[in-house]
Design a protein that fits this description.
This protein has 152 residues and is an alpha+beta fold. The protein is built from five helices and eight strands; from the N terminus they run ββααβββαβαββα.
């Protein structure tokens, strides 16, 4: 599947991605050291391919964003590794990636594996942070909401 967003292409899929693209995104986000040995690129491919859903964002031939999701495809899903290159931040790409994810399981419970500096971003996307002192997970209880609305 391809989606167009503000002149960029968003692709859905977990297979066939060059691990160097993922590595470069993680380095840009300062999640990885530039000194990581090349032989470790395999872990990016494995993690991506074992994800339930993934979306990548492309500016011509350059991957400028991605998100991957682990889910049971029925009740629960967790967003992992949402990242947008610094040069493309502030343009709504991250919010669009979250929107695409939530549409995959609209009546499910969604979680975001993240750090406190991203809480406000996820709140803007419709998730909430419950009891920050105890739990730093952002959550959207779509299953509960669907039940309240009579959809479950």
């Amino acid at each position: 599947m391809y989606t167009y967003f503000k002149g960029l292409i968003i692709r859905e899929g977990t297979h066939g991605l060059n691990p160097t693209f993922l590595r470069d995104l993680f380095i840009d986000a300062e999640w990885l050291s530039k000194d990581l040995p090349e032989w470790q690129n395999e872990k990016f491919t494995i993690a991506f391919e074992n994800s339930t859903w993934a979306f990548t964002v492309w500016d011509n031939e350059e991957m400028v964003g991605m998100v991957r999701v682990i889910s049971d495809k029925v009740m629960y899903a967790t967003i992992y590794d949402l990242v947008v290159k610094r040069t493309h931040r502030g343009k709504g790409i991250g919010k669009e990636l979250v929107r695409l994810c939530l549409n995959k399981l609209p009546h499910g419970d969604w979680f975001a594996h993240t750090t406190p500096n991203n809480y406000n971003f996820y709140k803007k996307c419709g998730l909430e942070v419950e009891d920050i002192d105890r739990n730093g997970t952002c959550v959207l209880y779509g299953y509960r909401k669907a039940k309240e609305e009579g959809n479950r």
